[in-house]
Write a structure and sequence with these properties.
Length: about 375
């Protein structure tokens, strides 16, 4: 992602110790790959609770003498382990969460413990360790949520934004990024469609459904750019293209029959990245929106100037003027294929995505 003119200077990542929670997920793996290739941090700590995924990742990015990579087994529910992992850490990216809508609906207490209490634990550990910058990943489902997953992410957003009050004059600053469905994450609809097209039939929960789309690379680069821009208290929202599920099917599985299996509990027909109630304290920049906290005690912060949004403005996947063409959909799928994730995603459909666009109720979300 190219930075617009007037953007802040790049961080000297070579002098930074960076920790990512959920580091063995789809986003985490791509984040680690790009960080090591393009930024060479002093230390890169991969924090997750899956021993096997860490073992597999270690084969690609080994730790040990001469390597900046460190692997920490831990759970965001364990605040003491987070405190230990954040020793002398400068930047934290919080990507760990339970992300599947059906899983969260069926296991609500588990969703709260990981997504809400885990956020609380991370905030407390970061404050105690005097981490400089903490950026949390959120989702379009946090806007006017209708499912528990979205509700927990809304609460997590509020916790991170208002954690700046606890930091006060201390060094730690908290911000969030919020974006839509990730094309290249395991469990997304793309590998499902690619697998189903072999049988000539694709299942969708509603043919008129629309979603925002972003690739893993775009997501990682937006996160890195937001870390460099953040002052604390803001939510960064990228300007993303959207398209209908039927259009995705037509592009990746042309000629296949579409079987409508019905919208599941907790699903929306359309998603939003900016809600109507946020418009009064949101500004539009060249490539993103910046949602400022409405609290008056934030007003000393010098955020970049931008265009104010009209009253009642809603940035939704249905009214988004930026629509993906069939060629652009295929280009995103090709990027997904080029990274070698399609086959594993189609075979495992592991729960590393919040994409709820059109999966069968009997499959992972």
């Amino acid at each position: 992602m190219k930075l617009p003119e007037g953007s802040p200077p790049r961080l000297d990542w070579s002098g930074k110790s960076v920790l990512i929670t959920g580091g063995t997920g789809s986003f985490g793996r791509r984040f680690v790959q790009i960080m090591l290739r393009d930024h060479a941090p002093r230390k890169l700590i991969i924090f997750s609770r899956d021993e096997m995924k860490q073992h597999e990742m270690r084969q690609v990015h080994p730790d040990g003498p001469g390597s900046p990579v460190r692997y920490f087994i831990g759970d965001v529910r364990d605040v003491d382990r987070l405190r230990r992992a954040m020793n002398e850490v400068d930047v934290v990216v919080h990507a760990a969460a339970l992300k599947q809508v059906p899983t969260c609906e069926y296991n609500p207490i588990e969703a709260v413990l990981t997504n809400v209490m885990g956020a609380k634990n991370l905030i407390e550990a970061a404050l105690d360790a005097r981490v400089e910058r903490v950026l949390a990943l959120s989702t379009d489902k946090a806007v006017s949520p209708v499912n528990l997953y979205g509700a927990t992410k809304l609460v997590a957003e509020k916790l991170f934004i208002h954690a700046n009050a606890y930091s006060g004059t201390g060094p730690t600053r908290f911000s969030c990024v919020r974006y839509g469905n990730v094309v290249g994450s395991r469990g997304s609809v793309i590998p499902l469609f690619l697998k189903q097209r072999q049988n000539g039939q694709v299942t969708v929960t509603h043919p008129a459904m629309t979603r925002f789309w972003i690739t893993l690379d775009q997501g990682v680069r937006f996160v890195l750019d937001s870390i460099e821009r953040m002052q604390g208290g803001e939510v960064f929202v990228p300007k993303l293209p959207s398209t209908g599920i039927a259009e995705v099917v037509a592009a990746v599985a042309p000629g296949c029959r579409i079987r409508d299996i019905g919208i599941r509990p907790g699903e929306k027909l359309h998603e939003a990245l900016i809600g109507e109630d946020e418009a009064p304290h949101t500004v539009e920049l060249t490539d993103r929106f910046l949602v400022k906290p409405p609290d008056p005690w934030y007003f000393d912060t010098h955020w970049p100037a931008g265009e104010s949004l009209p009253a009642g403005y809603r940035y939704g996947s249905d009214n988004n003027p930026q629509r993906l063409s069939a060629a652009e959909i295929l280009e995103m799928v090709e990027e997904f294929d080029d990274h070698g994730t399609r086959n594993t995603g189609a075979a495992r459909r592991s729960p590393d995505t919040d994409d709820s666009a059109s999966l069968q109720s009997s499959t992972h979300h």
